[in-house]
Amino acid sequence: MNYQPPLEDYRLLLTTICSLDRLFALPDFHELDFPVTDAVLEEGSRFAREVLAPLNPVGDREPARMTAEGVSLSPRFREAYQGFVAGGWNAVSADPRYGGQGLPEVVAAALSEMWQGANLSFALCPLLTQGAIETLLLCGSEEQKSRYLPRMVSGEWSGTMNLTEPQAGSDLGRIESLATPEGPHFRLQGQKIFITYGEHDLTSNIVHMVLARTPGAPAGTRGLTLFVVPRFGVPPDPPGTKNEVRALSIERKLGIHASPTCVMQYGGGKGARAEQIGELHRGIEHMFIMMNRARLAVGQQGVGISECAYQAALDFARTRLQGRDLVTGDDPVPILSHPDVRRMLLTMAGLTEAARALSFWAFYSLDFSRHAADPEVRDEHDRLMAFLTPVVKGFATESAQEVTSLAIQVHGGMGYVEETGVAQLYRDARILTIYEGTSGIQAMDFVGRKILKDRGQTFAALDRRIRQSLAGERFATWGALTQPLMDRLERLRDCVERVLRNTASDPYLAGAAAYPLLMMTGTVLGGWLLLETCAARPAGPHASIDVRWQKHKRGVAGFYISSILPRADAYAAAIQAPDKNIMTMESSEF
């Protein structure tokens, strides 16, 4: 499998709907320019192609394993990680005060997608570290930041996120891990499950971000506090002192075999030495910083693995000779000549590129929410980024299930055997709709916090923006493409208004409508962004985008509008059905 990061699409997005010119005008980025960011993307592409992608099947065959010393990965993974941190890839968007390069998040997002597309198991380690860095930066004390961040930004140390417990699952209010005060620190006792890279031998230390209770804390999520628990050396202990934390086992999983998913034990004796992060009993709020970052990153995982699956299927369709051309009669021909194969490939491309545009747009909004000079602009983009987060996570990862499945279908029987590699992509992708909040949890977050909580104001602003865009001069002759999108946007607005209007009288409505509303939103926004990308004029040194790529984008956008966008009608029908109370069946009737 020959994975090639889609640099042409990155450049198109970064010069149109996510214009770097606007970011370069901000004081925090004024020293950057296109040659710098382009060189970063080119070198990142080389590392993804030449180092990470060849390791992907190796990690599938040689999974992480438990040894007497702890969890160990393939020596080739350790070499790749050393190259990753030596190249500065862990520090691309991090704060320069702690050794970061300070590039925009949207540029780092392009790089992250490369890592995910080339080797999902490997990329999970820096993905979690980035979330821990962000949480420490926003919630840690100055002393904690100076102690942890330089080593985490460099990649010398990695980070993890510890929420789930055996009895709690996604219900974090049932967490039982207990942190008892001991002088300026705490002693933490408890067990966490499904901890990605909870133990490994890639870094010299692992910094665990752990949710736990304190004695006498309120019940439920209101009683949770966030703690940092390093594997080695919590002051006043000497730097190399082993903390009371260890992996009890690693899970045997359907996919991502090289990524160690650990059952972690904290304490068992005196207890793991832990430091409080942020305020007491505000742990769930602080942890949401890391969770939301991870949710956007998992959406990128869906895009990256979809891109890899599409490339593999396209390459096979160009070289596999089978069947007769329906017009010329030539026999055999590449299966790319067959309409149904093209339907599958265009579906894969449409879903992947729509999800990519959504994810880039979310990270672009993240940049403005942090770096814009005007507080109102920061607030506007912060609300937009929050609105997009569950959509990116849900739509991109659900799309990845379809795209990786279609990759097997395009390969036919050859896709069902391991040698072609697409079976691994299908297995690896299956976790994406589950971890960091299932699709159902993303949907409930979307309806509850992003629609109901602000009474649809953020959606209304976005609705107006899209309508103004499609009514603009650029789209004056695009009626065949813009009108279907306007029709679905109208239906989406009707669905949002139905949920807003009726949820109070039907408590189950929001839960029943949540998933189709999330997917309908992703489907409509994805179509709009594809059209925006095609209609916009690239700026900067990439003003002349390759003609072949322009034709590709227009073909994919046209197919999306005609053949994927109509899915919005089915979602709308489900949301607007007269009887939305799906709780009418008795449990015994299932």
Largest sheet: 8 strands, mixed
| Helical content band | 55-70%
CATH topology of the domain at 7-157: the name is Butyryl-Coa Dehydrogenase, subunit A, domain 1
- The low-confidence parts are none
The pLDDT mean sits at: 95
- The appropriate CATH architecture of the domain at 7-157 is Orthogonal Bundle
Structural class: alpha+beta
Question: Beta-strand percentage?
Answer: 5-15%
User: What is the helix tally?
Assistant: 18
Order of helix and strand elements from N to C terminus: HHHEEHHHHEEEEEEEEHHHHHHHHHHH
From the N-terminal CA to the C-terminal CA, the straight-line distance is: 43 Å
The whole-angstrom Rg is 24 Å
Q: What descriptors fit this protein?
A:
single chain, 590 residues, alpha+beta, Butyryl-Coa Dehydrogenase, subunit A, domain 1, Butyryl-CoA Dehydrogenase, subunit A, domain 2, 8-stranded mixed beta sheet, two-stranded antiparallel ribbon, 18 helices, 55% helix, globular
